[in-house]
Automatic annotation (TrEMBL):
Keyword Transmembrane helix assigned: yes
InterPro entries: Uncharacterised_HI1736/YgjV, YgjV
Keyword Transmembrane: yes
Key words of the record: Membrane, Transmembrane, Transmembrane helix
Name of this protein: Inner membrane protein ygjV
Residues spanning the membrane: 32-57, 69-87, 138-156
Native source organism of the sequence: Shigella dysenteriae WRSd3
Length: 179
C-alpha cells in the first residue's frame, strides 16, 4: 500500500503545481512531484519509470541554476539512452519524446511557451499510460493535462488583456519606524 499511497501524494503535489505562476516555485514543485512519483514507481517495481522520474526531478532542479545548452544536451542524451534501452513498441517512444521536449522547454522556454510545451509532453505520457494499461498513471497525467490546459487558456486570456500572468508580485519591504 505504500506505493499507491505515495501515488496519491504525488497526485496532490502534481495537480497543484500548475497553479503556480512563479516559474521558480513551479519548477521546485514539479521537481518534488517527480521525486515522489519516482519513489512510487520504484515501490511498484517499475524501475525504468522510477529512474526516469528521479532524473526528471534532478533535471528540473538544475534548470533553476542554469540554462546551459551543454547541461540540457546531457539530460537529453541520458533520457534518450534510458528510454531507448528498453524500447519494444513505438508507443514506448512517446514518454521519451515527451521527456526530451519537456527538458528543452525547462532549459530554453519561459512563461506560456514553456507551459504549452509541457502540455504536449503530458499528452505523450497520457497516451503511453493509457496504452500501457496504467489507470492511475493515466488519471494523474490526464488531470495534469486538464489543469495545465485550463491554466494555459487563463494565462493566455490574461496576456490578451495586457496582464503578465507570470509577473511575480513582490511584497514591499517592511518600513522601519525609526526612519
Amino acid at each position: 500500500m505504500a506505493g499507491p499511497g505515495r501515488g496519491v501524494i504525488a497526485f496532490l503535489i502534481g495537480i497543484t503545481t500548475f497553479f503556480n505562476r512563479d516559474e521558480r516555485r513551479f519548477k521546485k514543485q514539479l521537481s518534488v512531484y517527480s521525486a515522489v512519483i519516482g519513489v512510487h514507481f520504484f515501490l511498484l517495481g517499475t524501475y525504468p519509470a522510477g529512474a526516469s522520474a528521479i532524473l526528471n526531478a534532478i533535471r528540473t532542479l538544475i534548470t533553476l541554476r542554469t540554462r546551459s545548452l551543454w547541461v540540457m544536451a546531457i539530460f537529453i542524451v541520458l533520457t534518450g539512452g534510458i528510454g531507448l534501452a528498453k524500447f519494444h513498441h513505438p508507443v514506448e517512444l512517446l514518454p521519451v519524446i515527451g521527456t526530451i521536449v519537456s527538458t528543452w522547454a525547462l532549459f530554453r522556454c519561459k512563461g506560456l511557451t514553456m507551459r504549452c510545451v509541457m502540455w504536449f509532453s503530458t499528452c505523450c505520457w497520457v497516451i503511453h499510460n493509457f496504452w500501457a494499461g496504467s489507470i492511475g498513471g493515466t488519471m494523474i497525467e490526464g488531470s495534469f493535462l486538464l489543469m495545465n490546459g485550463l491554466n494555459i487558456i487563463r494565462f493566455w486570456r490574461m496576456q490578451k488583456r495586457g496582464i503578465d500572468p507570470f509577473k511575480v508580485e513582490k511584497t514591499p519591504p517592511a518600513i522601519d519606524e525609526r526612519g
